[in-house]
């Protein structure tokens, strides 16, 4: 672009030299302002600043992902083998001291964080696949990972979107509880199934 401008100004011999220089200065100023705007918009992107892990009752772990601005709703997906939960945070960069966090609580082993194409991916490496819940509160994404099956075998708490694909596992747990507690002689027959 600069070479085209210089060719045009060189061919405009009829223009006074001061006019050509001021036109060049104006184009340069516009270009610098454009670069400045791009650099400030890149710096203004939301940043993942902190990840805290807390143990909860029932072998659950709660992760709190703290961001510099309002937290986006994460896009989540899972992988069964090896067991992983992934969260994608749009328009977010990383401002963490380390991209790997050793948690070693409940079924959660480590958390890995990567950044690409203007988004941040947070990967929870699990010992085994368990249900999880995500919610956003202001500048924080809260992820609760783990089984909320109580010691008596009953599943407690609100249902999560993540339960649907592992519902058979929990049906087996509930039936196992009934089998081990009441030891039915004729087997178990499911007569009603409701959500």
Structural class, by secondary structure, is alpha+beta
N-to-C span: 64 Å
Number of helices: 3
Query: Which residues form runs of ≥5 with pLDDT under 50?
Result: 36-44, 158-165
Percent of residues in helices comes to 25-40%
Shape: elongated
Please identify, by name, the CATH architecture of the largest domain. Sandwich
**Looking at CATH, which topology of the largest domain would you report?**
Immunoglobulin-like
Rounded to an integer in angstroms, the radius of gyration calculated over CA atoms is: 28 Å
> What is the string of SSEs from the N terminus onward?
HHEEEEEEEEEEH
Rounded mean pLDDT score: 74
The number of domains: 2
Reading off the top of the CATH hierarchy, the class of the largest domain is best stated as Mainly Beta
Using DSSP, what is the number of strands?
10
Please summarize the sheet with the most strands. 5 strands, mixed
Q: Major sheet: order of its strands?
A: 5-1-2-10-9
Beta content comes to: 35-45%
